Amino acid sequence: MYNESFFVPEGPEGRWYSFDRGPAHFVSLDTSTLRGFTAAQMEWLERDLQASVLPWKVIFTHHPPIGAHGDGQLDDPLQLAPVLEVARRRGVRLILAGHEHAYLRYKPLGDGPFAPILVVSGGGGATLSSTVGIDPRLERFWVRHHHLRLAISPDRLECAAVGLEEEVLDRFTLER
User: Fold this and answer.
1) In this structure, are strands 138-142 and 103-106 parallel, antiparallel, or unpaired?
2) DSSP state at residue 78
3) Domain 10-145 classified CATH 3.40.50.150?
4) Is the pLDDT of residue 82 over 80?
């Protein structure tokens, strides 16, 4: 249904692609089916991020590279572990994902001041999730409809999760 309703650009070997907007380089990975996530996509990701000279690098996906079951058991998809490795190595500061119908902002995914932040933003439409697990790696968690607003300048990236009544549910800033 999604593919019939929306145009999805095709990348060099599939439904993954990148583009530049202002001082940011955005990379879309096709994680719609974890079994279809390929080594070719990871090789392309590495080359694409290495070639970017922009100050900000953002990856966005459907499935998040980490997560938890409703019972609190960690459930990190092994297929996506290389995404985190490449993100850390290539200076990605923000990873955006969907899949979970809630808002989750994780603590930095690694050591140091430039470790990537993962935001799962799945509160834009459908029924909200009541089965998202409590994960000790979470910084913020909301089961609310919302959308994200990004403001990006050469020196700072600001992200806000905004609810239906325009209330700010969460806000954070990353600096270079």
Assistant:
1) antiparallel
2) G
3) no
4) yes
